[in-house]
């Protein structure tokens, strides 16, 4: 192997490692964002917390996108898909925050990771994909994991988990819209999602904006910064390495959520959360594995 090829491979490997590091950083930032939300949940509504996130997101995303892509970010190839994606994204965010008010962060995070199962089911309807028996079995395992965490019919059940579960479904629909608008660049989607999110939440919380304490301001802005830079990390990461390679590392958010909850509040997940989350993560990872195999088959045999 020539020195030139060696250098090229070395650079590719460095890029992949950096991309993985950025995904890991994003999971920590998103978990920190949820910690910030917990600190102000008694003085700010879920809509207000979402407003803080999108306020900072716009401040970060718009200049970032303009610098990279210019004014083209305001002219998506699929405007209505981007509008719908922005609406589903903010709805999912508010629903998750409603659930988070009455759940521990590791529990809510674990339930949210059932989203890939919903994506799989929705892809049949909206993308015309064919799902085999193995992926359906993986989906069943994921749902069993969620049921173990939620514990319906027991004294441990809380209605807030329904909000988190619906948020995962709405988030999955947003992912489907992202796939359908695949010709639009990530920066374009960032701008439209952030602007639509800020517009919707501003209408919802307008009377509350003037009733903001310094405590809420500090944690609201901090959460927004974590959220915005978590998104930026993801954009850079997916530019450096294939999505199929990076997707499994997003499950590191379970570790981030658990670690931060322990550091801040001394919370250790119970047996139900541990077992349920393990099943959800295993289900998601297996589904990703099957998707990678199908992608390879499509490359080698376009007729599939």
From TrEMBL:
Instruction: Please list every transmembrane segment annotated in the UniProt record, as residue ranges.
Output: 16-37, 49-67, 79-98, 110-128, 157-177, 189-206, 218-238, 245-265, 271-288
Give GO cellular component annotations, separated by semicolons: membrane
Q: Which keywords does this Swiss-Prot/TrEMBL entry list?
A: Membrane, Transmembrane, Transmembrane helix
Give start-end ranges for the coiled-coil region(s): none
Name all EamA domain ranges.
18-150
Q: Which InterPro entries match?
A: EamA_dom, EmrE-like
Q: Which PANTHER family match?
A: ACYL-MALONYL CONDENSING ENZYME-RELATED (PTHR22911), BLR2811 PROTEIN (PTHR22911:SF103)
Name of the protein in question: EamA domain-containing protein
Q: Which organism does this record belong to?
A: uncultured Pleomorphomonas sp
